[in-house]
Amino acid sequence: MRGEPPGGFSLIELLVAMTVFIILGGILAAVLGGSIRSWQAGEAVVELNERARLLLDSIQDDLSATRTSPAGTAPVRFLGDYDALGRQRLRLVRTTTREAADPLLRQAGSALGANAAYDGAGDLDEAAGFRLLPTGGLMEVAYLVDPQAGSMEVRRGVRAPVGGAGSLLDDATLADLAAMRDRAPVVAEGVLLLELNYWAPATDEWDAPYLVAEDLRAPGDQARGPCADWDSTRGLAAGFAYHAGPGSVADPSDDLYPTRVEVVVVLAPGGPGAPSTRLLEAASDADPRLRVESTVGLPVEESERYVKVDEEWIRYRGVTEREVVVEEGGRGVRGTQAVGHAAGATVRAGRSFSLVVRLP
To answer: Does the residue 237 lie in any domain?
Structure first.
C-alpha cells in the first residue's frame, strides 16, 4: 500500500504562481506610476497658477492705485518702455495708504532733518534713526526683468517720496544693475515673458496691430491696436505715438494715461529649472524649421504654440519628433527680433496668463 503523497507545490505550480505575481506586480506598478505622474502634473499646474496669481495680483494692485493727476511738485509719471535687451518694463507713481500698516513708513517724516528715501536699501536702520522722508501719500513703483541677459526673474522696486536723486523714474537709476538687485526684490521666477499693452484714445481692439504716430496722422479703415509703450509726459519718448515734444515734460496739463493695461505673462513650468530642449543645428533668422533635441512637452494648444530661443520668440504651427515647424511670419514675434541662433541654443516654452486692469 502506497503512502500519502508528499506535501508542497510542484515546480509547475510555483512557476504559474510566480508568473501571476509578476503580472499583478507589473499592473500595480503601472497603475501607481500613472497615479504618481498625474499627481505630479497636477501639483505642477497648481504651482504654476500660484506663481501667476502672485505676480498678476501685485501688478494689478499697483495699476489700480496709479496716480493719474498732478500732485504739486512731485513728478507724477507713467512710463512703459524697454531695457537694453528689448524687454518691457513699467514705472508708475501710485497712491499709498500703507503708512498705518507699515512700521517703517509710520516713522517717515516724524522728525526734523530726515534725509533718506524709503527704497529697500537700509530702510530698517533709517527708520530706527528717524531719517526717512515723508512720503506725501505717493510711491514710485518699477517692474523690470532682472538686468542679467537670459534671466527669468521679475523684480519690483519701490521708492518714496517721488522724485529726487535715485528716483526709479530716472533711467540712470535703473541702469545701475547692482543697485537695482539690492533695492528691487524678486517677485516672480521662471518668467519667460512680461508683456504690457496700453489702451490709448485711438485704440479699437487689443489684437489689432500696435498703434503708431502715423495711424493718428492718417487714420484709415483698419482697426487700431494698443500702444506697446507709454510716456504720460508726452515729451520723454520720441517714438511714443502721442509724443508732443520735449517741452511737454514740464507741462502736466497735457499728460496722457492709458485707460486700461493688458498684462500678459508666460511662465515656465517648474520655475527656473523647467525642462527645455536645445537646437541640434544652427538656425538663420529666416529658417522655417528648427531642428531640436526633442519636442516632448511643447504646447499643442493653438494659443500656446510659441517657443523662446535665446531672446527671440517664435510662433510655430506644428512639431515633429525633432522639428519645430515655424508659422509663416512667426519669427521675431511678441516684440522681439528675428535673429540667427547657434547650435545648442536653449529652446523654452511656457503657459500664458493675462488680465486687463482699468486705471483710476
So the answer is: no
Is 316 inside any structural domain? yes
pTM: predicted TM-score of the whole model, two decimal places: 0.85
The number of distinct structural domains making up the chain is 1
Is the residue at 255 inside a domain? no
Q: Say whether pLDDT at 12 is over 70.
A: yes
Q: Are 105 and 98 in contact (CB under 8 A)?
A: yes
Name the 3-class secondary structure at 346: strand
Residue 164 lies in a domain: no
What is the distance in angstroms between the CA of the first residue and the CA of the last residue of the chain? 106
Which phi and psi angles does 268 have, rounded to 5°? Answer: -80, 130
pLDDT tens track for 154-195: 999 999 899 988 999 999 998 887 778 888 999 999 999 999
- 298, 254, 249: which is closest to 276 by C-alpha? 298
Is the distance from CB of 32 to CB of 327 less than 8 angstroms? Answer: no
Query: How many other β-carbons are positioned within 10 Å of the β-carbon of residue 187?
Result: 17
Provide the domain limits for residue 298.
275-358
Tens-digit pLDDT profile for residues 93-127: 999 876 666 777 777 767 777 788 888 888 788 77
Please tell me whether residue 275 adopts helix, strand or coil conformation: coil
